[in-house]
TrEMBL record:
GO molecular function, a single term: gluconolactonase activity
The keyword DNA damage belongs to this UniProt entry's keyword annotation: no
Binding residues annotated for substrate, in chain numbering: 40, 42, 60
A biological process term (GO) from this entry: L-ascorbic acid biosynthetic process
Keywords (A to Z) from UniProt: Metal-binding, Zinc
Binding sites annotated in the UniProt record for a divalent metal cation: 87, 133
Organism field: Nonomuraea endophytica
Top-level taxon of origin: Bacteria
Catalytic-site annotation from UniProt: 133
Assigned protein family: Belongs to the SMP-30/CGR1 family.
Cofactor remark from the record: Binds 1 divalent metal cation per subunit.
UniProt-recorded name of the protein: Sugar lactone lactonase YvrE
Length: 212
């Protein structure tokens, strides 16, 4: 199971799959992991300083998952504990804010960000009508959140105001990402499993490749 992918500065990919991270091509292990039973990697992204962030999930035992940061040299640090289902990650255009979703909290959270470190966690918005999942940040600094079981993608301003709702034909949007001026939305079974394209919504913050 592949749950997250990021490009590498020198070419190739970082791939999260189950209980391990690998550098591709070649399947070279990135870090050494001993995740708790019934815990697996979930969503991940690269911060503006080239670190790869990856979260875990364990819905059978709430509060036992975590969020990790992997430095370019492969060293991993635990940045958050007490997580249940680590999901969307993104950074503001000025790099000063990191946005984050732990799905069962029903909230979009933010941290102050600096050189790969985070402080001052706070709630930006409460996501209603479903569960927050993956996210993407646009050039205006607003956050697009896929709403699982909500058949929609929500756009929140940095102040937490819901200013746009894009309805989807599938009940379970899982994540979203910008490609040029198109927002691509992934969806899940049973009535999804599709890739949707939403046009006319502006552009996103260009992704940073992993520096390792």
């Amino acid at each position: 199971m592949v749950t997250a992918i990021a490009t590498r500065r020198g070419g190739g990919l970082v791939v999260a799959r189950g209980d391990r991270l690998t550098l591709e091509p070649g399947g070279v292990p990135l870090g050494w992991w001993d995740l708790p039973p019934d815990t697996r990697f979930n969503d991940g992204a690269v911060d503006p300083w080239g670190h790869f962030w990856i979260g875990t999930m364990c819905t059978d035992r709430p509060g036992t998952a975590a969020l990790y940061r992997v430095a370019p040299d492969g060293r991993a640090t635990t940045e958050l504990t007490g997580v249940t289902c680590s999901n969307g990650l993104g950074w503001a255009p000025d790099h000063r804010t990191m946005y984050y979703v732990d799905t069962p909290t029903h909230t979009l959270d933010a941290f102050d960000a600096h050189d790969g470190r985070i402080t001052c966690r706070r709630v930006v918005a409460e996501v209603r009508g479903g569960l927050p999942d993956g996210l993407a940040v646009d050039v205006d600094g607003c956050v697009w959140v896929a709403v699982w079981d909500g058949a929609a993608v929500h756009r929140y301003t940095p102040e937490g105001r819901l200013d746009t709702v894009v309805e989807t034909p599938c009940a379970r949007p899982t994540s979203c990402a910008f490609g040029g001026d198109t927002l691509y939305v992934t969806t899940a079974a049973p009535d999804g499993g599709s890739l949707l394209a939403v046009t006319g919504v502006g552009g996103g913050v260009p992704p940073t490749p992993f520096a390792g």
